Amino acid sequence: MTSRRSSTTAGLTRSASHAQETDDSASPAEVSGSSLNHSTKMPPRDDEDSFRCGKCGEMKPRSCFHSWNRGRGFQSYCKDCDRLRNKSRSETARRAWATSEAGKASQRKWQRKAYLASPKKFLAHSAVRYALETDRLVKSPCEICGSRQTEAHHDNYSRPLDVRWLCRRHHADLHTRSRKEDTT
Ligand SMILES: [Zn+2]
Ligand SMILES: [Zn+2]
Ligand SMILES: [Zn+2]
Asked: How many A from CA of 133 to the centre of ligand 2?
C-alpha cells in the first residue's frame, strides 16, 4: 500500500496561507523572471515535506508535484507550472504544424477527402464553422441533456445553418436511430 492521501492534505493546509501570500504579491513578470535570477538569491532549503519548484521558485508540499520515476522521485516543476508548460508546448506544436507546409498539405488532403466523401455535408459543416466564428450562429446546450459540449446536427444539409445542437452522445444516438429507420 502506498501512503494515504490524508498525510498530504496536512501539508496542503499548512502551506496554503504561505502560497496565497506569494501568489498575491508576485506579478506574472516577477514569476517568469524568478527562474532567471534564482542564482542571485539563495534557494530555500528543501525540508522534509516542502520543496522548491524549479520554475516559479515557490516552496510547495510534495503533493503539488507529479511523480516521476527518476531522480528524487517527482518532477522539479510543480503541477501548476507543469500544466502551463504542457499547454504552451502543445499549442506551439499545433500552431507550428498548422502553418508548416506538411501541415497545410495534410489539411488540404483531409478537406478534399471530406469534400469528396460528401460535398453537401462538407459545405454545411464549413458554413457552421464560419457562422460560429463570425457570431452569426451561437452554440446551444444539448437539446436532450443540456450538456454544453455540443455538436451541430443537420436534419438537412441543404439548409446549412438550420442545425440542432446535441452533445456527442446524443448526436451519435440520433444517427444510430435514423440509420435504423432508414434500413427498416
Ligand atoms: Zn511552480
Ligand atoms: Zn446530450
Ligand atoms: Zn448529425
From this structure: 23
